[in-house]
Amino acid sequence: MDLDVFVTAHRAEWDRLDTLLRHRRKLSGAEVDELVALYQRTATHLSLIQSTAPDPQLTGRLTNLVARARSAVTGTRRASWRDVTHFLTRGFPAAVYRARHWWVPTALLSTVLAAVIGWWIGTHPEVQSSIAASDELREMTRPGGEYETYYSSHPAASFAAQVWTNNAQAAAMCLVLGAFLCFPVLWILFQNMLNLGVGAGLMSSAGRLDTFLGLVLPHGLLELTAVFVAAGTGLRLGWTLIDPGTRSRRIALAEEGRAALGMAIGLALVLFVSGAIEGFVTPSGLPTWARITIGIAAELAFLAYVYVLGGRATRTGETGDLDRTDRSASAPSAA
Could you tell me if 232 and 256 are in contact, meaning their C-beta atoms sit under 8 angstroms apart? Predict the structure, then answer.
């Protein structure tokens, strides 16, 4: 495509659209119809230029023009409680359900990794001695030691808030950093599994693995599931950059990125629940079986939420992305 000829042929339409958008008075019916037609044609022109002869200055001008026209045509939309309900009952669970082929294997492999690390540390005294001195290890693992008092070392409310903040940041980093070809996500995931494996290995070597699991499982099941979902989604986002499939790389990354950002909000709510359990249930005086039962119930409720509501929403076409009318204008590919 000869860009100069194309610009000469269509500049008058773009200028006319700009003029209509600058009108301060109310447009007549005919002018509104003209604005809509010019908006559609300009969006098509923008798509053609981006795909055949990208020019940064011209693309920037037309992108701005299309965005303004879209705003004028569709009007300003405000979020409502209906949007919140849709997100919680359809958008978020559907996004998690669609990513299950990534986060379920991530969860299984990560759990195996943590178990192997725990076994290795628990059965090799020389590895334990490289972590800390024997006196320090005894202080950490003894009854009433640091591993037990950690969960009751601060007031429950402030501890729950601190845990929630830290976990939400880790989940958000997994989601955002997935675009960097997956490697940062794998590192964050490894660090989490290493910490878990070290704790399990040290407590196992002291013959107190049951105590460790009794402290970790009530909140850890839901907490780790949220981390696995974030990591799996981040990995999928990174893989989209490598292999976008039938979509263009830009469109694929935009669609998956919007869904990932929505999941960050949803996972923050999930981690709020796990943080509350960690702050109020884990250090409580409830028997171990009761605390673990609460953790299992929370985990099963989340999985049912994802597989029942999310599966149903996905089968009706929900993807977790923004509604089509709320997305940036995507122009057709033909003139």
Answer: no
Q: Per-residue b/e over 66-97, b at no fewer than 16 CB within 10 Å?
A: beebbebeeeeeeeeeeeeeebebbbbbbbbb
Positive or negative, the Cα torsion across 70, 72, 74, 78?
positive
φ, ψ for residue 90, nearest 5 deg: -135, -55
Burial 162-184 (b: 16+ CB within 10 A, else e): ebbeebbebbbbbbbbbbeebeb
**Is the pLDDT assigned to residue 23 strictly greater than 70?**
yes
> Taking a C-beta distance cutoff of 8 angstroms, is the pair 141, 203 a contact?
yes
CA distances from 225 to 167, 189, 230, 290 (A): 11, 12, 9, 20
Task: For residue range 199-257, list pLDDT tens digits in order.
Answer: 999 999 999 999 999 989 999 999 999 999 999 988 888 888 888 878 777 777 777 77
| Euclidean distance between CA atoms 151 and 216, whole angstroms | 10
Checking if the pLDDT of 334 tops 50, the result is no
- pLDDT value of position 278: 87
Neighbours of 235 (CB within 10 A): 22
